[in-house]
From TrEMBL:
Pfam families: FtsX, MacB_PCD. It is a multi-pass membrane protein. InterPro entries: ABC3_permease_C, MacB_PCD, Macrolide_Exporter_MacB. The lineage of its organism: Bacteria, Pseudomonadati, Pseudomonadota, Betaproteobacteria, Burkholderiales. Keywords: Cell membrane, Membrane, Transmembrane, Transmembrane helix. It is found in: Cell membrane. This is ABC transporter permease. Residues 20-272 form the MacB-like periplasmic core domain. It comes from Undibacterium flavidum.
Amino acid sequence: MFRYYFLLGIKSLRRNPALTALMVLTLAIGVAASVSTLTILHVMSGDPIPQKSDRLFTAIIDPGQKEGYTPGEEPNDHQFTYKDVTNLLASQQGVRRAAMYGIQTTLEPERKDLGAISMEGLAVTADTFPMFEIPFLHGQGWQATEDKSSADVVVLSKQMAEKIFGATNPVGKKVRMLKGDFTVVGVSDNWAPKPKFYIFNGREGAFMDEPDFLLPMSNAIRRETAHSGSMGCTSRSEPGWEGRLNSECTWFHFWFELKSPAQRADLQNYIDSYVAEQFKLGRFQRQAKNRLFNVREFLVEMRVIGDDSRLSAWLAFGFLLLCLVNTVGLLLAKFSVRASEVGVRRALGASRREIFTQFLIETAVVGLVGALLGVLLAMGALQLIALQSKALAVVAHMDWAMLGLTFFMSVSAAMLAGLLPTWRACQVTPAIQLKSQ
């Protein structure tokens, strides 16, 4: 019987084609608006490393002086000083510890046809690779010994390696950058967690592409490589590179990997003890609260998902509700002209339940057609959004989960809108309709 009613629903699309087209278009526009907004929110609020996001922690500590500080005010600088990352790396806390900062440089390829290549990358410590589970197409990352020796080694991204060397395996080859020759030890394979939690340079930066390269942080420090990104200073520093390293200026990022989330309290105690020890040495004079965050908590703290995104989602669903109200009116008009048909069916023995099922399946057919059109409109809307910036281009794409949600929302919305018109159709009195014929 379902198949029969479904075929009737398809045939009913040809009745009042203008009214049917208006219903489908109204439903499709409402679904497309809500799904495209929800898709962006879905990508932005995703877990970038779900297998261990509850075991990776960063902290917010405040090494600043008392000047300009309001007691009780929570610090919001998520970066670290060089002195602190050096101490934390030697702390032996957790399973792994990773420090990093962003850098920019120009690569001088051997191929003269390429010319100089501008690159954005990271200066990191060796634990970064296993901590963040960076996949490799060729080779591997360096070890702690290369960190200690400040080795001239580099890991290239897949895209950058192909740009420089083509499709060949470049491990062991040299690249010239930062006024030195670096040996390629590995090529990462499409490592781009979204949002980009490990190094945060603003909300838009959380959705940028993967770094072009990674090299030892100790090497970048030895070469006096300036950072790329924000830097916070709570006091004046001495001139020169050594003055910057010894200052209270923050531009490093730091992460701990714990064996289990249960060790969080121990890490918090260590951070508190460390800050208390540094206070005795004349630092951390503000005595602000030290806060610890896992990956998900850190993304919330950094407001990667802003209130404007949530507001946009609510407005989109409000628009969908408005479309549903219009669809209800159109379905009432569509079903009202079929009162005589319902009267004849009831007189021939059809129950109200059968009438209800038939008309509800017809509305589901409208929902399916609306879903197909809604998917096309949503994909078009996402393409337009992606043109606005690189960050939006990363998040404005529909995956299989959102595609399935589009069909579910469209059919569900159509059936919801069809409940009242279908119920009204079931109330037709056969005798009155037969007398009117």
